[in-house]
């Protein structure tokens, strides 16, 4: 493996456990494998999530309300698979998952959407301590409108502007509509009880500034990281685990665009793409559309 990124410092700011791999797992693994120092900042424990599989279904917020603690373990396994370090913003449990727009969780004063200047100061401290050259988060819409994703975007840009040494570049992770369409078209069969997305149901963008083509090693690491979140992600490869003992199997007509099929708790089949896509959020211009780091200095 080419170790051409030794000395590069990268910080990814994410809202919940599993976002680090769904949105940026390929990039984080690639950076780490090439020698970069990579840290994931996770802002909440994802307490409001649903649970795939019956064995731990009662951990949800409306039940035992123990899902957040369980997901700490899932996140640790995911970060290990990606080969990166992780921290919780303000410490584990400082900020609570806000849920989707309109959820009762929005009213909890500990919800991340109410984090105000305190969260911005916490992330500024992280940036001052780690001094990242590159920061990755979501765009202004949070990728798909989740309030915590939007808040992560807000505090990232505010903290970057207040940091003693601002990052050279901020990238926004996005889903490419053309790539998604290609990947969906290659899904030949899906598991029983799963469904295909309706037109426009999965959030995606028409334009992006840079594409990361995942190496085989980065793709394998991303898949391992996704499988580390079994309460949230179901990989249709026939495997079972203690969290979800039910097997699901999908097939692809081609593995050139996607290399696996997965679903969230909504059971909408999605392709796990061999590419990740990013928009320039701030800082140094993209010097190479096939590189996330070209033009940076370290």
Give the topology, please.
Elements: E1 9-14, H1 19-33, E2 37-42, H2 67-82, E3 85-88, H3 116-130, E4 134-137, H4 147-162, E5 169-174, H5 177-185, E6 187-189, E7 210-213, H6 216-227, E8 234-235, E9 251-252, E10 258-263, E11 270-273, E12 275-283
Parallel strand pairs: 1-2, 1-4, 2-3, 4-5
Antiparallel strand pairs: 5-12, 6-9, 7-12, 8-10, 10-11
Description:
The chain is built from six helices and twelve strands. It is α/β, with parallel strands linked by helices and 298 residues long. It has a domain at 9-176 and 205-213 and 275-283: Rossmann fold (3-Layer(aba) Sandwich), CATH 3.40.50.10320. Strand 10 (258-263) and strand 11 form a beta hairpin. It is globular. It catalyses: 1D-myo-inositol 2-acetamido-2-deoxy-alpha-D-glucopyranoside + H2O = 1D-myo-inositol 2-amino-2-deoxy-alpha-D-glucopyranoside + acetate. This is 1D-myo-inositol 2-acetamido-2-deoxy-alpha-D-glucopyranoside deacetylase. It comes from Corynebacterium kalinowskii. Catalyzes the deacetylation of 1D-myo-inositol 2-acetamido-2-deoxy-alpha-D-glucopyranoside (GlcNAc-Ins) in the mycothiol biosynthesis pathway.
Provide a compact summary of the structure.
Its EC number is 3.5.1.103. Keywords: Hydrolase, Metal-binding, Zinc. The chain is α/β, with parallel strands linked by helices.
